[in-house]
Amino acid sequence: MKRHALIALLIALAAAGLGADETTEVYRRIYLEAEGLRQKQAAVLDLVRLGDRETAPVLAEALGKLLADEANYTAASEKELLGRMARDLAAALGDYKYAEAAPLLWAAVEQLDDPLARSEALVALGKTRSLAYAERIALLLESLNLQPSPDADSGEKLAFGAILALEKLRDERGFAPVFFASEGWYSQRVRQQAERSLPNIAEDPTDRIVALLAAETPARMVRAFKAEIASKAPVPRKSEAALQALRMGHQRSGRDKAESLALLELRKLALRSLVAYKASGPGPVEGCAASYASGYDDEERLLALQALGANGGDEAAAVLRDVILKLNDEQRAGLGSEARNRMAKAAIENAAASKNRIVKPALLLVANNDKWSGGIISAAKAAQAAIP
Fold first, then answer.
1. Which of 141, 146, 181 is nearest to 162 (CA)?
2. Which of 124, 309, 367, 369 is placed for a possible disulfide with 90 were both Cys, Cβ 3.0 to 4.6 Å?
């Protein structure tokens, strides 16, 4: 009855223009007047239902008192009630974005037994944008990812809260743990949440992804690079990641067919990206040349030629020139084939796309080699005309 009377008094005083400090003190009295854990929980619910951010300092004080007194509540029913109360307090503090409560919220994560309360405290830390705790939350999720928890349900609840917290914090330190959570031991619900959260953690995750490309399995390298492609990173940064993906796709050797095919997929994704981003300069040339010379299939070799044409630099044009010259010599020697014709036409078309005069002498030789078909000769003449 006392509690309801105080709430009625608060409403009346608020209507009369009660100041912020006085309002907070009335909120505090409502909580302090409550006797016993059950009444305190009811008081907290009443305060939360008011939807007034002025209650936040009182709610934080209540959480601190709850953590301080936790050891005094030993009965199962009391522990359950304490967990529910902690969840309500953490959720409200998060909704109010009350960053001053961050130390208490982290203490709740470390101290409480109730996994839902700990999870809610993590989410609240994210909502309050408490970046000082990003590293600790990332390490917590990293630890959870390593192996199933003794109590799998509790581990999943905690991981779910950590994933949401890292998404809301938008700190790139959370990228790798959430990336691994998306393929971890968790249930589909947790893994799918990690997939949804991953693109929101960092607009430019390139540094983290480049690190993954250097150290992870081929399948994970593909997943990491796809995350880069889908990110909001600027084009030069995406080109940087594509260059690393192509480089690692050639440096690594698959231990079995599945890994070899994953590395092939990585190289093709990288080559398509280099074309799309019009990546220029000498950096990509070595990888493109390797994909043409020793590509797994014609698709990889054709993509390599396309990337060289999109590059347009002198180094890239020199590779296209040498490819055309070699194919022309082989044609003169009677080594022509349908596959060589396909590569020759692609090399000529991409030489034209390069707009680089370095390729013109090779195109001239093809145009004057009557061993080629009329289609190839016409393509070489058109390419010559397209280059200033």
1. 141
2. 124
Residue 12 confidence (pLDDT): 54
Question: What is the reported pTM?
Answer: 0.85
Residue 379: Cβ within 10 Å count:
23
Q: Take residue 154 and report the two structure tokens written for it.
A: 């509790």
Token couple for 83: 């967990």
Residues 6+ apart with CB under 8 A from 364: 380, 384
How far apart are alpha carbons 274 and 105 in whole angstroms?
Answer: 45
Tokens coding 278 = 């019009």
pLDDT at residue 9, as a whole number: 54
According to the model, what pLDDT value does residue 273 have? 98
How far, in Å, are 15, 23, 32, 44, 301 from residue 19 at the CA level?
11, 6, 20, 21, 74
* Average pLDDT, rounded, for the chain: 91
CB 83 within 8 A of CB 115: no
pLDDT digits (tens, 9 = 90+) for 320-346: 999 999 999 999 999 878 999 999 999
Task: Please tell me the distance from the alpha carbon of residue 288 to that of residue 270, in angstroms, as a whole number.
Answer: 10
CA–CA distances in Å: residue 289 to residues 79, 107, 154, 292, 295? 66, 56, 51, 5, 9
Using CA atoms of 68, 70, 72, 75 in order, give the dihedral in degrees to the nearest 10.
170
Distance CA 43, CA 45 (A): 5
Distance CA 170, CA 376 (A): 53
- Residue owning tokens 């960053």: 99
Question: In this structure, are residues 149 and 157 in contact, taking their beta carbons and an 8 Å threshold?
Answer: no
> What radius of gyration, in Å, describes the C-alpha atoms of the chain?
32
State residue 25's pLDDT score. 74
Residue-wise pLDDT for 48-102, tens only, equals 888 888 889 989 999 999 999 888 888 999 899 999 999 999 999 999 999 999 9
3-state SS, 175-223, equals HHHHHHHCCCCCCHHHHHHHHHHHHHHCCCCHHHHHHHHHHCCHHHHHH
Query: CB count, 10 Å around CB of 42?
Result: 15
DSSP H or E run through 154: helix 152-169
Helix axes 76-95, 56-69, angle to 10 degrees: 150
